[in-house]
Amino acid sequence: MADDAPACVKLLARHDEADPETYWRALDDVVGDLATVTWSSTGALVEISARGVTKATTLATLCAELGVEAGDVVAFGDMPNDVPMLRWVGRSWAMADAHPDVVAAADAVAGRHDEDGVAATLAALFGLAGWAGAADPSPGGPR
Question: Which pTM value belongs to this model?
Answer without folding.
Answer: 0.79
